[in-house]
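Why do we care about 3D structure at all? Because function follows from shape, and shape follows, mostly, from sequence. That is the central idea of this module. The next example makes it concrete: a single protein chain, its amino acid sequence, and then its structure expressed as tokens.
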Amino acid sequence: MTGQLARFLVVGASNTAITLASYALLVAAGVPAVAASVAAFAAGAANGFRLNRAWTFRSRRGGARTVARYVAVLALGLGLNALGVALAVGVLGLPRHAGELAALPPVTATTFVLVRWWVFGAGRGGTAARRAAVPPPR
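And the structure:
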């Protein structure tokens, strides 16, 4: 699981880079900021789905149901992050950047567990569990 978490973090960093680069290109091309942000986020999310499925969790799961679950986890992560920042800044009085940094670890941990277990099935009953349950041939 440690290797999966490390790969998940690398994928997250690549998602961020793709999102920021896409946003910059779209804004430079004259796309309004909000539309550019939505499109850039979608580009980063698509990268995350593809890399997490193939590399992080090595899952065979695909299709609309898996994509819907992935989008649901992203939406939950976004909501949890907003709540965490609101609490850190509004209640604890942390500076804005510190509030974001405080919110990231629990949100990352939550989304990792949900993507691993619920989206790509690497948890109980998923492909990794089935592989572990069947001993390799001798």
